[in-house]
What we know:
2 domains; binds zinc ion; seven-stranded mixed β-sheet; alpha/beta
Amino acid sequence: xxxxxxxxxxGERSYPIYIGSEMHSSFAPTCxxxxxxxxxLIITDKLVGxxxxxxLEKNLKHYQFRVTTIVIPPGExxxxxxxxxxxxxxxxxxxxxxxxxxxxxxxxxxxxLAGFVAAVYQRxxxxxxxxxxxLAQVDSAVGGKVAVNHPLGKNMLGAFYQPAFVWTDxxxxxxxxxxxxxxxxxxxxxxxxxxxxxxxxxxEQQLDRLLHLDAEAVMHVQARCCEIKxxxxxxxxxEAGLRMVLNFGHTVGHALEAAGHYRVLKHGEAVLLxxxxxxxxxxxxxxxxxxxFRRIETLIYRVPLKRALGALKPKAIIAAMGRDKKxxxxxxxxxxxxxxxxxxxxxxxxxxxxxACVQRxxxxxxx
Length: 367
Ligand SMILES: NC(=O)c1ccc[n+]([C@@H]2O[C@H](COP(=O)([O-])OP(=O)(O)OC[C@H]3O[C@@H](n4cnc5c(N)ncnc54)[C@H](O)[C@@H]3O)[C@@H](O)[C@H]2O)c1
Ligand SMILES: [Zn+2]
């Protein structure tokens, strides 16, 4: 059943995000309402496909859609041009034409990759997001950023390409590994800190329900995060300014991911630690009061995160920060909280303070 519908208002590229639970039977009728072409290609990964490909395929076929499927191996390492090229070849071989739709069934990896494929294939075919991880449902499936990685940097090749709609089924999360729930909570806490004190308070009070995937609590935060993201994207679709606030926790987070060669930490885990470091930085710079800092740190601590961080060296983390594509003319940019629910972009940060922040998270979290 669809529980909530949230609009992303982008003129002729506007689209809805449908949030609910057990919605398989209404997917194809929704496609019909959105004038999705008869030829549909579902791209998914093996782990997601095992659970959700058949029901989706069956539902589409039942409504006379012609369905083709491509199943890729799971994992961030698949989000590259080589995999995209293989998909293009398969699409050409299967005779998929311009009047087709690509459905991304999976987490952020499948969403980013399938979106990239949809944006580029024959100059663009229709695209639908069916996110199946908590992270993708609250963040990556919304906003139209699609990309693949390059050996010299993450998300270096991509586009802004909005889907026709986003289909978020909370029931999918039941099969998700626990580690992925923590990753999603990273981005959810981010939304509370950057713009919604009430969401932050809700998380303080209801975190345990979320960890147990209580459907009502999950749908509440999914809807709130999607609303916040859609308001930000509406004002700044192509990240000329405001959209940057979504990078709270990500300057340090991306550096943590890179320093571990994308094997030690997953994106959401790195964001959790990154938010802790950047909140500490804000506090040390006199931007964030001690009590707000304590509340942010306490909430992050409550999210299970069982990574051994011994392989991450402070020097490598700080070096990786300089290479981040979001660094403007070599300067590191930080989105720092000034209160719970408000942030500010800061460019000048004392190197000694930065080292202290990195030391703090490594010291705290080494297992
Ligand atoms: N486009 C954006 O705006 C944006 C924003 C944030 C993150 N991202 C990108 O998202 C990616 C991370 O996405 P992710 O955290 O969803 O990881 P992911 O796509 O790798 O999924 C995590 C793991 O969970 C499995 N999985 C997914 N759904 C499942 C389900 N319902 N049941 C069982 N297993 C399931 C997948 O097979 C995978 O092994 C990164 O590449 C990141 O750069 C993009
Ligand atoms: Zn993120």
